[in-house]
Write a structure and sequence with these properties.
Length: 195
Amino acid sequence: MSMLVFVFGDSIAWGLYDDRGGWVGRLWNGRSHLVYNLGVDGETSEDTSKRFIAEAKVRGANKNSIIVFAVGVNDSSHMNGSHRVGLDEYVHNMEGMIDQAGEHFTKKIVCVGLAPIDESKTVPFILEKTLSFYSLDRHEYDLALEKMCNPKNVTYVPLRDLKFHDHLSEDGVHPLSSGHAMIAERVLQVLSELG
């Protein structure tokens, strides 16, 4: 029987700039599990938290499923001078989704860390001039996510050490196909351990 994997995230999870469905698309690739890519361009943890229960439920999430959250880069970004989602609110949103996932669906929960960015290209962001992405903020949100996962027995997948400089698109945030492959390799290792 196929294992169901649900990936909730932003445009990086969705696979912007990649013709193979990003790193999430590479998780399936003929393996014995079904992967739902529920990434939405531009989403923050606030946006994801409003939809994830309904979307997982309608697709049949259960106690044997794996739920993956890959959100946070947009939260850490600045819009018109302030964070889109403050750090405390980000942690609160992530804790809430993890708790709800465990209560309604499964204990097999994964949080994918925030991928490196190239700040020299992201202030301001080429695709949206009111946005800016800063490496220090991204790092701070990523550390907060990791710290929150540990006591909740949630698997955290670190991406901060990936040598991403040559694997980012010209916008400095979204991975090229080679970057998506690097993320997929990390996440697949975790899925094989959970499955």
